[in-house]
Hints:
Number of domains: 2
Shape: elongated
Oligomer: single chain
Strand content: 5-15%
CATH topology of the largest domain: Fumarase C, Chain A, domain 2
Number of strands: 9
CATH architecture of the largest domain: Up-down Bundle
Helix content: 55-70%
Structural class: mainly alpha
Amino acid sequence: MRLTLDGTSLTLDDLRPCFAGAPVTLALTAGAKKAVKRARKVVDDHVAAGDVVYGLTTGFGKLKSIAIAPGDLEELQRNLILSHAVGCGPPMPLNEVRATQILRLNCLVRGHSGIRLELAEKLLRLFNKGFVPLVPQQGSVGASGDLAPQAHMAAAYMGHGDAFLDGKRMRAKAALRKIGEEPMVLAAKEGLALINGIEVMTAVGAGVWHRAANLSKAADAICALTIEPLQGSAKPFDKRLAKLKGHAGHARTSENVLRCLAGSEILESHADCDRVQDPYSLRCVPQIHGAFKTALAHVGDVLGEEMNSVTDNPILFPDTGEVIGAGQFHGQPVSVALDYLGLSLCTLANVSERRIEQMVNPDLSGMPAFLCPEPGTNSGLMMAQVAAAALASENKVHAHPASVDTIPTSANQEDHVSMGVTAARKARQIADNTERVLAIEYVAAAQARDYFGKLRAGKGSEAAHRAIRKRVKPLKSDRYLKPDLDAAYDLIVSGELVSVVEKAVGPLKA
């Protein structure tokens, strides 16, 4: 896929191939190149005039009042990068780093940061040649940009630290040599421009958002497969109820589930049973899954706006020559949104775990205990439900919001910070756990559906059941279960489950 950056029109969908591990190449529009040149002239003019301008000819943060001699500006930028490369913890996944590279370059070519066109073109070449810096996950407080992780990116461009080529880790200088590039030398303002943004939290958040969008559809399909063997009712998904409720997420959930249940003989078989109402984990799915869809839409809007925002400091205005210091680099808008996404993902895991309990508990389901044909000598899916409970409960710990926390940094100059990367990393972990919980429900629902084998399931449910039965055999007696759960997990995270269901019933709505 080829992405042409102009600083204003990047979308979440544009990043999908990057997160999927597909090849992506970058190009710049003519307008972007012109904007970069115009902004650079502002920097060059101030430097030539000997003006004292923060970020251009001064120190940084608490050292903002110290003027730097013109001959020392390259050293200033070099020292800024190296002193800020203090990240900790394991490396970021490479697809998240590549997304960060795209986002930062997109910001820089908007034409308000003041880098040279040569630098923009070098960043583009490095990306297209597959140069991926090693970036530690921890060390950003999410204000003044994601300074530490982006400093590691910039340091790798300068030949310091490690990088990856074709997935192979090596010293950054060796990687640059291998692709025929010299280590980057930064001019006035450029070091600051490379690190003073919140693209790390935005990139990680965008990756979680794509996974969450897939989960939004997968959860509805798995829920439909669960409803049938639990002899639930389709009535709570009536579109008239969705209209009375008024929430778009409610309506999208109801439509998805009804399409998956269409043509179900299992539901028809108990149409006149004496059950008055289903448990909330079935009856309130439109409200619960629907609330998640509402959150997903809002977070998508926030991330989409942030992907094309200018997050540098100071900001250059080439039309007037002004240089304005502000707080564009503060990550609070993204941090709050990613906390929202994380806690909303928790609700999918919570309700999924309750549906698993409904299926494995014979007092609730009317099916064999733990869905095992010969309970007693066999434990069936007893511990699978326990694992789901553990994951759902762990999510509650991760759901504690990062965006409400702050700690002063930089000698109290940066006295309120967003903790946005923490919010993004927590949301990523919650997504991991939620995918696993839904995989357990998927295995359980397929096992439960087998007890109604002579009756046809709904179109979507039948497609979901066929997909998992190609990889996971029915459980007749106890066996090593982890491969079964992993297979269901792979069907979910790869998007294959959603794909096969959509082939049967048409596009589902996230």
